[in-house]
């Protein structure tokens, strides 16, 4: 029985990218806002959230 290596999952490529920490933080913010029924997100909101994470 030969084992085949797993194929890359394009949709999850952000997890292993160079700046994965920032992609994950942004997507987490999107998810939280989605749960809160936030329909529209502005770049300024996302930047403020990232700055808040860095300060902590």
Write the layout of secondary structure elements.
Elements: H1 20-35, H2 43-55
Characterization of this structure:
The chain has helices spanning 20-35, 43-55. The chain is mostly helical. It has one domain (10-55). The chain is elongated. 0% of the residues are buried.
**Distance between the amino and carboxyl termini:** 50 Å
What's the overall average pLDDT, rounded?
Answer: 86
- Beta-sheet strand percentage? under 5%
Class inferred from helices and paired strands: mainly alpha
Q: Tally the structural domains.
A: 1
* Biggest sheet details: none
- Radius of gyration equals 16 Å
The dominant shape is elongated
- Provide the low-confidence segments as ranges: none
- Give the number of helices: 2
Helix content: 40-55%
H/E element order: HH
**DSSP strand tally:** 0
């Amino acid at each position: 029985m030969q084992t085949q290596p797993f194929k890359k999952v394009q949709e999850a490529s952000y997890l292993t990218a160079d700046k994965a920490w920032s992609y994950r933080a942004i997507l987490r913010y999107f998810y939280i806002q989605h749960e809160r029924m936030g329909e529209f997100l502005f770049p300024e909101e996302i930047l403020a959230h990232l700055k808040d994470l860095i300060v902590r």
